[in-house]
Amino acid sequence: MDEALLRTLTPAVIGILVRRGADFAAAEDAVQDALTEAVRTWQADPPRDPRGWLVTVAWHRFLDAARADASRRHREVRVEHEPVPGPVRATDDTLRLYFLCAHPSLTPASAVALTLRAVGGLTTRQIAQAYLVPEATMAQRISRAKRTVSDVRFDRPGDVATVLRVLYLVFNEGYSGDVDLAAEAIRLTRRLAAAIDHPEVAGLLALMLLHHARRPARTGPDGRLVPLAEQDRGRWDTRLIAEGVDVLQTALARDRLGEFQAQAAVAALHADARTAEETDWVQIVEWYDELVRLTGSPVVRLNRAVAVGAADGPRAGLAALAGLDPALPRHAAVAAYLHERDGDPATAARLYAEAARSAPSLPERDHLTRQAARLNARLRG
Amino acid sequence: MAKYLLLKHYRGAPAPVNDVPMDQWTPEEISAHLRYMHDFAARLEATGEFVGGQALSPEGTFVRYDGEGRPPVTDGPFAETKDLIAGWMVIDVETYERALELAGELSAAPGAGGKPIHEWLEVRPFLAAPPTITE
Questions:
Q1: Rounded (5°) CA angle A172-A175-A180
Q2: Which residues of A touch B57 (CB under 8 A)?
Q3: Distances in Å between the alpha carbon of A231 and those of A208, A273, A281, B61, B115?
Q4: pLDDT above 70 covers what percent of chain A?
Q5: Helix runs in chain A, H state only
Q6: Which domain holds residue A357?
Q7: Which terminus in chain A has less CB density within 10 A, N or C?
Q8: What do you get for the CA distance between the two ends of chain B, in Å?
Q9: With an 8 Å Cβ cutoff, is A377 touching chain B?
Q10: What is the pLDDT of residue B12?
Q11: What CATH number is given for B2-125 in this structure?
């Protein structure tokens, strides 16, 4: 039983049901039922045409549900008989599903959950485990999301930027439980890149590949965070890096720069350096300048200050930091890093301890506490 | 089996015996402490006594309803005198004595100088569901 194949088929099968007249919510439920049935029976009796099998079973599930629903409400079944299957363009259906599941009327958490289920073919249980919420809670979130988009027309094209934001969120969640969300986000972004020709889709795919390539080196054997400069670059996945760089270069050649391409360019420059010392910080600063221009984001300015500190010295980095709101997440950590390089370990230690207190995750807090401890030990002599 | 909440405080608990802030430890002492905490949770999972646990940010705010059509009133961050929970762990154990034993082990986590912190942990029983047979 090939679960990966099953999940790949999910959006196309939903699309076919919707084309035959099912509404999205009912189609999605019917396909989940068919997937469960497939997991149960394919092992012993694998079908010759998996997609055809799923379409048939899902369609019958849909008809059963629609009839039951209709008799409950004493009204006619809208779809009575099975239409003759026409030529189907699975790619278009998949693309429409991406747009629908990332519809702007959905909250980010709902869009993420719906995308993982309807496009990714994950079960509600798997999604709930990945986000550490009870399965019933996730089921409610998904069914509310489906109600929210029930009036959205399936064939209307959407905004690709909303889809990219959802996939970015999934990627950034990392992984917990038995579902690797980063790998899932890459799979979904690859499919999107195959379905739509857009440089920012390629930019996001490149960004994900380049960051995913570093994952084996990002945590130590005891689970601690290893900062970029200290990572064992021999553990970076060169195959993913090569693919990411390739995807990025093709996108950049189109000359329609966007924020994901620029972020991927920064990641590519890091990937390109065999040692931390060889990093081309001057070019990285230039890409951050582009990012500031594209987004105006204070978080980007904060990261730019780190790059400026590495390219032009810690004083320049601190100057770049000066205009930014100290309440920004990770501001104290960046300031600590720059003060240490500026030869002021006492200020750096104080700021690292402050950064640890406001750290948003446990690994970051442990890392920052360790930095403070390292400097304090040195100060005690 | 009975469930207990083990509470660790940033503030509000009596001072531990080995009371040195973590950023004054050596990095190796920090590693040893984190390993101990990790191993403790892993061991409880292995014995079937671990339910869950989470660390909490020191940032916190008191909030209350302020009447129809008005935004909630907030008061915070916590004043220096307030209790401040640092994290919690829920265990499911046979007896109260077992809960105390485990809290004692957790409190023995190594700190500065590699010596146990002797930190005060709060052990709170959960109110259970009513039993089916009551007579």
A1: 105
A2: 358, 360
A3: 18, 12, 17, 38, 31
A4: 93
A5: 3-19, 24-41, 50-73, 90-101, 108-114, 124-130, 135-148, 160-172, 181-195, 199-213, 215-218, 238-252, 259-272, 281-295, 298-312, 314-322, 331-341, 345-357, 362-380
A6: 290-381
A7: C
A8: 20
A9: yes
A10: 82
A11: 3.30.70.1060
ipTM of the complex: 0.88
Cβ separation A369–B23 shorter than 8 A: yes
Reported as a pLDDT band with limits 50, 70 and 90, residue A176 is: low
**What six digits make up the tokens of A369?**
């506490």
Question: If you ran DSSP here, which 8-state letter would residue A229 be given?
Answer: G
For residue A88, the distance in angstroms to the closest alpha carbon of chain B comes to 48
Indicate if A110 and A133 belong to the same structural domain: yes
Amino acid sitting at position A61: R
* Residue tagged 């990572």 (tokens): A231
> Cα separation of A366 and A288, whole Å?
28
In a domain, A226, yes or no: no
What is the model's pTM? Answer: 0.89
Question: Which residue shows structure tokens 């270069």?
Answer: A249
The predicted structure's pLDDT at residue A177: 60
Interface test with B, best of A219, A369, A380 (most B CBs within 10 A): A369
A129 and A34 belong to one structural domain: no
Q: How far does chain A reach from its first CA to its final CA, in angstroms?
A: 62
Q: Where are the beta strands (DSSP E) in A197-296?
A: none
Q: Rounded to an integer, what distance in angstroms lies between the CA atom of residue B15 and that of residue B56? A: 19
Residue contact A373–B27, C-beta within 8 A: yes
Residue A374 included in any domain: yes
pLDDT digits 0-9 by tens, A244-273: 999 999 999 999 999 999 999 999 999 999
The average confidence (pLDDT) of chain A is 91
From B48, B29, B47, B26, select the one nearest B37 (Cα to Cα). B29
What confidence tier does A80 reach under pLDDT thresholds 50, 70, 90?
A: very low
| CA angle (A361, A328, A278) in 5-degree steps | 75
Residue B81: band (very low, low, confident or very high) from pLDDT cuts 50, 70, 90: low
Is pLDDT of A294 > 90?
A: yes
The tokens of B27 are what? Answer: 């990095």
Residue A284 lies in a domain: no
Contact: A369, B55; criterion CB under 8 Å:
no
Task: Count up the domains in chain A and report the number.
Answer: 4
